[in-house]
Design brief:
about 220 residues; alpha+beta; Pnp Oxidase, Chain A; 9-stranded antiparallel β-sheet; 5 helices; about 35% strand
C-alpha cells in the first residue's frame, strides 16, 4: 500500500518531437524566438510564464514565476518592485537563471546570466501600458513586505483611485525592470524512455556561441 505523499508510481511518458543539432540555429536568441512563437500559438496565456531563480548574498536560493515582457539580443526583461525579495537578492547577487516550461510541447529552456536594471524610461513606458488595475496594485503594494490584512491593501488602492480619478497613476520610483544578459542557454525536448534531447549554448570570449549536446 502506498503511503500518503508517495508519488513514486506517478509518471508520464514524453512523446515529443526529436531535437537534432541540424534543427537548431547558431544563435540561441533566434532559437528561443522560434520556440516562443510555437508556444504562443499552442497556449498563449502561459507561454511567457517563467521561473526566475535568484540567490542572496549567502547563496540561499529562491524561485518564483514571473512574466517575460520583452526580449532581444540584449537580454530578457521583466518588471517588479525593487523592494521585493527578488529585488533584494538581485542587489546582493546580480545573477539569475530563467526557466520556461511549455507543457504539451514537452519543452524547456533555461537561460543563465548577469542581471541589470532597466532604465527609468523603459520602466515608465511599460508601466503606462499596464491596465489601470495593475498600475494601482503596483502603486499600493510594497511587494513581499508583511501587511495586517487584505482590507488594508484594498483601502490603499481605493485612496489611490480617489487621488487619480483620471487614471494617470504615476510609476512608483521603486518599481521598475530587470534584464538578464544571457551567457548560457539550454534547450530541452522530452523524449520517450527519458532519453531527452538537450543542447547547451555557451557564450565564448569572442562573442560567438558554442553548441553541444548533453546527455539526458
Amino acid at each position: 500500500m502506498k503511503e500518503k505523499g508517495d508519488l513514486s508510481a506517478t509518471r508520464r511518458e514524453y512523446i515529443g518531437d526529436s531535437l537534432r543539432r541540424t534543427d537548431l540555429t547558431d544563435n540561441p536568441v533566434t532559437q528561443f524566438s522560434r520556440w516562443m512563437d510555437v508556444a504562443l500559438r499552442y497556449s498563449p496565456d502561459d507561454a511567457s510564464s517563467m521561473v526566475l531563480a535568484t540567490a542572496d548574498a549567502d547563496g540561499m536560493p529562491a524561485a518564483r514565476i514571473v512574466l517575460l515582457k520583452h526580449f532581444s539580443e540584449e537580454g530578457f526583461a521583466w518588471y517588479t518592485d525593487y523592494r521585493s525579495d527578488k529585488g533584494r537578492q538581485l542587489r546582493e547577487n546580480p545573477q539569475a537563471e530563467l526557466l520556461f516550461y511549455w507543457y504539451g510541447l514537452e519543452r524547456q529552456v533555461r537561460i543563465r546570466g548577469q542581471v541589470v536594471e532597466l532604465s527609468d524610461e523603459m520602466a515608465d513606458e511599460y508601466f503606462q501600458q499596464r491596465p489601470l488595475g495593475s498600475r494601482l496594485s503596483a502603486a499600493a503594494s510594497s511587494q513581499s513586505h508583511p501587511i495586517g490584512s487584505r482590507g488594508e491593501l484594498e483601502t490603499t488602492v481605493k485612496r489611490l483611485q480617489e487621488c487619480y480619478p483620471d487614471g494617470e497613476v504615476p510609476r512608483p520610483s521603486l518599481w521598475g525592470g530587470y534584464q538578464l544578459i544571457p551567457e548560457r542557454f539550454e534547450f530541452w525536448q522530452g523524449r520517450e524512455n527519458r532519453l531527452h534531447d538537450r543542447f547547451r549554448y555557451s557564450l565564448q570570449k569572442n562573442g560567438e556561441w558554442s553548441v553541444e549536446r548533453l546527455q539526458p
